[in-house]
Amino acid sequence: MSDTPRKKRPIGSWLRKKIKPGEKKRLLLKAGEGFTGVGVHLPLMVWRGLEDGPVLGITAAVHGDEINGTGAIRKLIQEPPFELKRGALILVPVVNITGFERHSRYTPDRRDLNRTFPGNEKGSLTARLAHLIMEEVVGRCDYIIDLHTAAVRRTNFPNVRADMDDPDCARLAESFGAEVIVNSSGPAGSLRREACRARCPTIILEAGEALKVEPSVQDMTQRGLTHIMAELDMIDVADDLRPDTAPHQMIVQGSSWVRAGSGGFLKFHVAPGDTVQKDQPLATSTGLLGKEHETIVCPHHGIVLGMTTMPAVSPGDPILHIALPDTRKQFHSLEKSVDRIEEDTLENQVRDHLATSITVVEHTLVDEDDEVELKESDEI
């Protein structure tokens, strides 16, 4: 990364409006026109502290149906848990405004906005929106936290993803306080990757499900954002009021999807956030009449980072996303830490809430001799 100072756009004037220290202003950025020719606008809020300091961008719904972050930003606007003393916040509840209005992950021209950055001001609708975000948001920020959820019909256990080789990204990721940090630079064309290339350190939070605003995810998001703002000296938080953080933190270099070997209807044996051991049963696939087709076992030691919420699967469908500790020692340390988490902690609340989207049952061995074949005369 170059040592040349980065030239940022000013925070105090925007769209011919002045934003004074201590002020909050709601703004609308024109993002283009819809099919009717009527303007499409991107709503955001700028909140300046009383003193100079870093500019932190908080964005959500780059995928238009991933709205947990939208709810978290709205709550931050309506019920701020702190007084912003230094620096400024740029709050963008919905980046993909055209996808959001259609309850869709994608933009109306069927593109993935989070594979289109840095965009092009003369390109497609999606490319123009990406360019606008890079210029007007990334171009004014010192740091960005981008909030995501799992794709539709999946759920994610809260985890931060960051390029841990970048000291500023590592600082943000560790300060957030999630149990799991996935070390990666992000896919090509993603907001995170391109913002980092523009020398604006950016991390993402993956948590919860699409098309939902989940209370426990909101609480964990707000806690993590408060941690980061305290770390950046944007807010004053007394030690006795500082929100609790995760009882442990694991940085993983990789993850793996476990897939169905056959089609069927799943019984899950684990939930998001569970630690799992190699060869442990994860799910049992049965036919609609209950005959067992296969037991899907874990190929690695790890922690359940994400999983499908749709029990009906085809061969090859992804079922569980497992974060892979670097060593067996790291896994056992994680396993012991998870076992010691007290019941009333936010971490356990999130585990319990995410598990409500699936039914988890203990794995039991089926004795084939006990199965009774249906006779032609038996009714179904």
From TrEMBL:
Q: Which cofactor does it need?
A: Zn(2+)
Entry annotated with the keyword Hydrolase: yes
Q: Which domain of life is it from?
A: Bacteria
Matching Pfam families, A to Z?
Answer: AstE_AspA_cat
In alphabetical order, the GO MF annotations are:
hydrolase activity, acting on carbon-nitrogen (but not peptide) bonds, in linear amides; hydrolase activity, acting on ester bonds; metal ion binding
Which residues are in the Succinylglutamate desuccinylase/Aspartoacylase catalytic domain?
Answer: 53-231
Query: Which keywords has UniProt assigned to this entry?
Result: Hydrolase, Metal-binding, Zinc
Q: Which SUPFAM superfamilies match?
A: Zn-dependent exopeptidases (SSF53187)
Report what the protein is called.
Answer: Succinylglutamate desuccinylase/aspartoacylase family protein
What species was this sequence derived from?
Oceaniferula marina
